[in-house]
Amino acid sequence: MDIKQLEAFVQVVEARSFSRAAERLFLSQPTVSVHVQSLEESLGTRLLDRLGKEVVPTPAGEILYRYARRILALKDRAVQDIHHFLGELAGSFEIAASTIPGEYFLPPVLAEFQRRHPKVKVSLCISDTGKVIKEVGRGTYLLGVVGGKVDEKGLSFVPIREEELVLALCSSHPLAQTEKVDLRDLESIPLILREEGSGTRRTFEEALRQVGKNLAALPVVAELGSTTALKEGVKACIGAAIISPRAVKDEVHCGIIKTFKIRGLNLRRRFYLVRRSKRTLPPPVEELESFILSSLATGS
Question: Which of 87, 141, 175, 199 is the most buried if burial means most Cβ atoms within 10 Å?
Fold first, then answer.
């Protein structure tokens, strides 16, 4: 058993996929498979089961995963402490983000952070808001950036940016030729939504509740698991979507999609940096937290 094998195993468990784990580790999929196979052989038991397209840990794998996370965290902390002693900022760690901050806000911030601190390696995992909050609470990730917050003891949410969601329509839709869209228009437009747990969907549902409405009264025709899928559904004229204007900026510029603010519906939302409130962060993570806050706070 060695560190590289444990790193491969942990990434496969968290990504639920050998191919996605390989992408995160910048390795080939066969290399990741060999690492996990060697680990299973050294322990004399199967650690992972393949269930359709997903990979899940066996009971033995669940036990090893808990210890492997601690071992890797200790390894990273040892490296960080040595570099800190030498007056350097170094180490590797993962953070998580929901789709919009993960795909649009954070990449340039992380690029600049790593330019300033070349010995720090930051990996970014993208999921929906609900899952990111859950994993930060469990300690899987030390930091997260999400499109909503929950009232959960032990978690700290710091607002960093705002935006107003819009209704996106394919340019050939009859309503796209109008100048405005009202709340009542939603009752006659086929809608495609993000999945439950998405910050975008939570904002939409909360906005409807504020005006005495709910999703059950609207013609929802599909639920899709990513912002990209949502955007492609709009382009294919499957339906209209509530979406971040950042996600469709290029399509609007090209005239493929038209967006509207919905009169009578407050779709403003905040993005937050989330962390466990009483957890002491390693120096590189603490430095990144400060850098994210200074780069993104109060922006829109």
Answer: 199
